[in-house]
Design goal:
224 residues; alpha+beta; 5-stranded mixed beta sheet; two-stranded antiparallel sheet; 54% helix; disordered C terminus
Length: 224
């Protein structure tokens, strides 16, 4: 197996493991809420007393978890289809937003938030969907690893001049100096992932900012 195939397999395993773990949490909460409803029904059968508010809260909790589970499955399903189309025109914003959803659990565990922004124009590129997701995911990992306290990772897709780009920035509520994400363990994965796309990463004058730059020419009826 090649180095690229190893990287792809490791990424697939990471995403699948994280998503299925979240789905297990959803099922556990549904089971717990269903058990509580069962207890309340049994108590009503014995005493004729029922707490409607408590029952309604349990039902609402189940509904919320069903919605969450459906979103997780939709995200995983979309990710699976990344393998169906190796080279396709993909929306930078859509891919950035999708990766933010996949990184949600990782950010939550660390007490951070993810924010996705885009220019008015929705820029698209003919790239390998899996590889761009790998690079974006690694970029988020670098930011999350280097945030010293609860903060926000901002991902902005658009253009810098005429060149498609995705900018990463980390923010906190204090004046604490932010370490450079390029010092993170996942930075190597960022560089390797962009190499697969014929793209590169640029660091800004502010150490906590960096940018993915997609300069590769595109043979299409509309230039990027």
């Amino acid at each position: 197996m090649s180095t690229t195939e190893n990287s792809e397999a490791a990424f697939l395993a990471k995403i699948t493991a994280g998503t299925t773990h979240e789905i297990r949490n959803v099922l556990a909460i549904v089971q717990e809420s269903a058990g509580l409803i069962e207890d309340m029904v049994s108590f009503y059968a014995e005493t004729g007393k029922l707490n409607p508010d408590r029952l309604l809260k349990s039902v609402e909790r189940i509904g919320a978890q069903v919605d969450r589970g459906a979103e997780l499955m939709s995200t995983l399903n979309r990710f699976a289809h990344s393998l169906d189309r190796e080279h396709d025109r993909v929306s930078l914003f859509d891919e950035t937003n999708h990766v933010a959803l996949m990184c949600g659990r990782l950010a939550k565990q660390k007490g951070h938030k993810l924010l996705v922004q885009q220019d008015e124009e929705n820029v698209s590129l003919p790239v390998n969907r899996l590889h761009i997701e790998m690079a974006l995911f690694a970029g988020v990992e670098c930011c999350l690893e280097q945030l010293p306290e609860p903060g926000t990772v901002v991902m902005h897709s658009g253009r810098t001049g005429n060149t498609p780009t995705v900018d990463f920035a980390v923010e906190t509520g204090s004046a604490t100096a932010l370490p450079a994400p390029r010092n993170a363990a996942a930075w190597k994965s960022v560089v390797e992932g962009l190499d697969l796309l014929g793209a590169e990463v640029e660091t800004e004058s502010v150490s906590s900012h960096f940018r993915f730059v997609f300069r590769s020419p595109v043979k299409d009826d509309k230039e990027i």
